[in-house]
Amino acid sequence: KEDDSAGDSAGSGGGKKITLGFSQVGSESGWRTANSESVKSAAKEAGYTLKFSDAQQKQENQISAIRNYIAQKVDVIAFSPVVVTGWDAVLKEAKAAKIPVVLTDRSVETSDDSLYVTLVGSDFTDEGRRAAKILEKVIEKAGLKGNVKIAQLEGTTGAAPAIERAKGFKEVMDAEHKDDWKIVVSQTGDFTRAGGKQVMAAFLQSNPDINVLFAHNDDMAIGAIQSIEAAGKKPGKDILIVSIDGVKDGFVAMSEGKINAIVECNPLLGPQLMEVVKTVHDGGTVERWIKTKEGDFMQDQAKAALPTRKY
Ligand code: AHR
């Protein structure tokens, strides 16, 4: 799916407008919707011509969108890769065409670091660590003693946030909770509400004694809440829930007592991305990884924070 959203004014330098080809992962979550809107409005604000396409969570769609942008000779290509591997060939084609590539949100594994200029996005491993640290507080507050049985709802298989959030969480668990925490089930819910709902229902069948859910995003947690309630249990009480993102619906669930804590992952990357695109286009240098600043929220902060949430 491709849509061309043209900015209406000239770029900040007053010269020829920058044409940016952007390949989005999909529209799988509230986070993604906010991210797409941020990219579109920031491109408009910057006065760029934006060519935007939605890959519907399929790598082959992203590869053909990038090939299209190369054929159209855009000035810069930006994309949020659905998975980490399998990009070398198309990135080499962009390099051969002398079109700089900027990654946003998610990283890739490449054999050649020169195939992309920078990544504008979050530190997902740290988000996983922060999720484990905030879970310690949630457990203490709930008075749960020993025997923490965790269900993990993973993001899309092979995607950087799924791999790295699981890694960061496990790192803290192995270092500090070898004896008292255990991940009893872990499966992908593909970052969607429907996925979270379906997989959580199966988890509850196979492991009815789960007392913690770690969901790699709010949408899967919200889907899981429906299955927890359908099983006659109270989300946030019988099953403590920590998730990642901080979208409005996540904050609503938290203010209703159904999610216990949220680790923020900021999707509003548009303005920063446009600055980077300009610098790269003008031949300037940028840092290899431009990290996003984020916070953590416990349930008792949810009501006060809800009106200020921007996504
Ligand atoms: O890559 C960021 C992740 O992708 C978000 O946490 C998730 O909601 C989205 O689908």
UniProtKB/TrEMBL annotation:
InterPro entries: Peripla_BP_I, SBP_2_dom, TAT_signal. The keyword Cell membrane does not apply. Keywords: Signal. It comes from the Bacteria. It is found in: Cell envelope. SUPFAM superfamilies: Periplasmic binding protein-like I. Pfam families: Peripla_BP_4 (PF13407). Its main location: other. Residues 22-277 form the Periplasmic binding protein domain. CDD domains: PBP1_galactofuranose_YtfQ-like (cd06309). Belongs to the bacterial solute-binding protein 2 family. This is ABC transporter substrate-binding protein.
